[in-house]
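ARCHIVE RECORD
Type: protein–small molecule complex
Small molecule: iron/sulfur cluster
Source of inputs: curated submission
Record status: active
Notes field left blank by submitter.
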Amino acid sequence: MPAPVAPRTLYDKIWDDHVVNQQDDGNTLIYIDRHLVHEVTSPQAFEGLRNAGRPVRRPDCTLATVDHNVPTTSRKNFKNVKSFIEEPESRDQCAALEDNVKEFGLTYFGMSDRRQGIVHIIGPEQGFTLPGTTCVCGDSHTSTHGAFGSIAFGIGTSEVEHVLATQTLLQRKSKNMRITVDGELLDGVTSKDVILHIIGTIGTAGGTGCVIEYAGSVFRGFSMEARMSVCNMSIEAGARAGMVAPDEVTFAYLRGRPLAPKAGEEWDRAEAYWRTLTSDEGAKFDIEVKIRAEDIIPSVTWGTSPQDVVPITGSVPDPASFTDPAKRAGVERSLKYMGLEPNTRMEEIKVDKVFLGSCTNGRIEDLRSAAKVVIAAGPDAKVASHVHAMIVPGSGLVKQQAEAEGLDVVFKRAGFEWREAGCSMCLGMNPDQLAPGERCASTSNRNFEGRQGAGGRTHLVSPAMAAAAAMTGRLTDVRKFLSTSPATTGGTTQLKISSALDFLTDRVEASPAPQPLVDEAGAPLPEAAPTSTAGSNQFTILKGIAAPLHIANVDTDMIIPKQFLKTLKRTGLGNALFHTLRTDPRTGESTDFILNRAPYDKSKIIVCTGANFGCGSSREHAPWSLCDFGIRCVIAPSFAEIFKTNSMQNGLLPISLSEAECKSLAEDAEAGLELEVDLEKNEIRREGGKPAVGFEIEAFRRHCLLNGLDDIGLTLQRVEAIERFEQRRSETWPWLDGFGYGKGGGKIPASAAKKSVKRTDW
Ligand SMILES: CC(C)[C@H](C(=O)O)[C@@H](O)C(=O)O
Ligand code: SF4
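STRUCTURE (tokenized, with ligand):
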């Protein structure tokens, strides 16, 4: 009798279907079905391929676009990137992607293509993102695509190169976490409020080490757009990825999309497979969180971390109410940065700017939701006179659809700016930025210090709440626009909206000892595989000054701000490290930040006493800048996963120790004592006769670091296993092979695609 199959989660099932090779120590080579590429995190990866003479393994599974650097001003006079983009580094990065897609033969949506937009918007829009797939991009918000029931996660640039070269990634399986939201959402509560509430509840490190499955009646009732907004911010909850099991809503969204399986036999086969993608009854989740829908109020952030969430009816917290001194200091620091007084009612906070867009909320339903609020404010209602409000559709197709529905007219009449697609003020790598001190109600996903512009202050809200803030000039409970009672929206006339449900666009519309490394045949792998282009990634023993850092949730925006992401190189970023903390944004002068002071200006190690180091963006520029500064080891209570992987790809050692051990080592650091980190002996030696502190590093990674091994070289030794997997994939999931756009814009089948792929834009 065959052994009974243990119940599996959705994540387990998709993972199992993508295993190319599994090592005994749990490191697994998984196949990647879908790879999205943008201009910021790819130049160094393409350079790596070029230097090693490697082609892109699966151009048919790769889709590229420009989004972060593009200006959002009118493209009426657009001729080409080189003449249109004024800022030299932004221009160079976009031009570099255009050269790379030509050289490597990739499908690309450029600025003259109406399909161009934010990667996480265009993938789903085209049907490129499909259930049951693995989907990656050099971008943390790749979690968005999990809304389709796919394992979708952000990677660093070294991993981008790995996927381009091998179509695989070396991964360890994450834990299973399930967040169930059951019940009925209150009027005015949208998917953004749900995910903000979840992050406020579990914290920005709540999902660390996990893939979250969102379950329960609330997510089942959500549209695909709403599910994408939720999965998008899984990364802000610290998770590797977020996912929702595919269902009728998913299938209805995908039917007829250019790159989705074709109607008929192909579709039927795909749908039959997709229907198996649910967590089995009794499947084991390592962590379960249950939330009542009725407890969620329209939400807003007050501080500089996405977990700083309060209901809009609430107030700015009072640091005095925190007993833990570190937490109190953190709140004080946030309030100082945000220019807020404790106990101020959220609704009293005036805003200068409103930004509606980003990969969280730049979809058609988001624009509809905001437009309804504007309409509800009255036919002559205008954006508050002191507010600058901008709408940035997530893609050219979203913009086109909104214009077809007349939403642009609603916004423009009320005084909003109506712009072209891109990331825009979510990150401000283009000219759309906050000035120092400016306050913004933003539908984006990160409220880190300086995120939308040095010194800028961000409050995260839903699209409906952003529209309400634009109209009243301050943070506003959007339910006031729903109310049947007299207007309380700061003098704006209100229209009654017929049904609260109608107002919500999120609902579904009717519509230790290292293992010897062995190859396939069990023969030992060579000590050093051929190297790619990354600098040396070897780490053995490191002795030097350690800088103490007493901050929790050190995000990668803080480690290296956006303006330094425009480089085409991996080097020259030492001065960029902690730039906002090391340089006064107003005067440009050096501050007294620890790394500016002797002896710490020569630090080789950072000892951080706060948890969750390296959270946020997937930018590998963070470890590049640390290495360039001379830091080759960071010790902290915990790390965000992408940062950890990125670090080890660059010979930078992330060591997790208990909070007490970190505090104790930080005391040595404060005293200017040197530490000696020994990876061979797995110990940190201290001066003054203090006992050494032991640490653990996952065996395979330790082996690679000690020997300076290159992942790509190792993987390419498994090329036969990859080929065997690809053959099985073509037989089992044929709809995943080969695409190109035919004359009508639709998918060309694999067979024809191989002969004549009609590539786009270039
Ligand atoms: C540029 C990219 C690395 C980054 C990310 O990974 O998130 C960006 O999209 C962001 O939102 O900060
Ligand atoms: S989070 Fe912002 S900058 Fe990053 S991909 Fe999304 S829209 Fe672009």
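CURATOR ANNOTATION: Residues 88-104 form the longest helix (17 residues).
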